[in-house]
Design the sequence.
């Protein structure tokens, strides 16, 4: 089983739509959680960290459910420029064979926003 | 300021040859990470350094892969006796210091093709 599981999509939504992505992680001792964005043929870039209480950054809202080992990303009022692959990322800290600096990436969820 | 740079951007080699991939992190960043990314997948951890010390090399696929960062800045990932299955995008990232919660900044990657 992979450490981070994501539905690869693709998700195709019209401009202005609300879309949600989910991912699950396998290690209950995981410590840090992120969403990275990767545009086609580009490098991944941090979109936002995910905090236990949930957090919002403009049109983006991230939620963490530690009991279910589940992370979500909600995008409201989708823009054409939101088209990208969204990577769910987990850091497990220094436990269960992992190390502090090691990040585990999901395979990514592809989003296309159409006009 | 300058981001993470990698060279070469593209490398085509014949099976059995050795290749060296270079990463120049953001100036002042203590931690440096190597990943491999296959098409349609998220980055897969290979190894990372804190200053010049290699902290975790458990992600290196086999002993043909090695990495060094002798002066705590530029890093080289070397693949000996390349095989076709080594073909992938190799990405380097750096972060200001070593902490699971820190943002990692990725370089543009080196696309390796082994014929």
Sequence:
């Amino acid at each position: 089983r992979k450490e981070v599981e994501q539905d690869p999509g693709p998700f195709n939504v019209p401009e202005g739509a609300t879309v949600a992505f989910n991912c699950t992680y396998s290690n209950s001792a995981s410590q840090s959680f992120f969403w990275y964005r990767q545009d086609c043929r580009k490098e991944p870039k941090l979109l936002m960290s995910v905090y236990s209480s949930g957090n919002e950054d403009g049109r983006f809202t991230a939620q963490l459910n530690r009991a279910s080992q589940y992370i979500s990303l909600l995008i409201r009022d989708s823009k054409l420029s939101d088209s990208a692959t969204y990577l769910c990322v987990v850091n497990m800290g220094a436990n269960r064979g992992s190390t502090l600096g090691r990040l585990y990436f999901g395979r990514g969820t592809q989003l296309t926003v159409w006009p | 300021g300058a981001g993470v740079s990698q060279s070469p951007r593209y490398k085509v080699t014949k099976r059995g040859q050795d290749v060296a991939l270079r990463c120049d992190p953001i100036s002042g960043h203590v931690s440096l990470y190597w990943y491999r990314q296959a098409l349609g997948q998220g980055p897969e951890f290979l190894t990372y350094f804190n200053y010049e010390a290699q902290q975790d090399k458990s992600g290196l696929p086999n002993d043909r892969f090695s990495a060094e960062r002798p002066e705590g800045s530029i890093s080289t990932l070397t693949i000996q006796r390349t095989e076709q299955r080594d073909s992938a995008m190799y990405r380097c990232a750096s972060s200001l210091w070593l902490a699971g919660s820190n943002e990692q900044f990725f370089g543009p990657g080196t696309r390796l093709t082994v014929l």
Observations:
- Chain B is about 0% helix and 50% strand.
- Chain B touches chain A at residues 31, 33, 35, 40-45, 48, 50, 55-56, 58-59, 91, 95, 98-101, 103-109 (CB under 8 Å).
- The first strand of chain B starts at residue 5 and ends at 7.
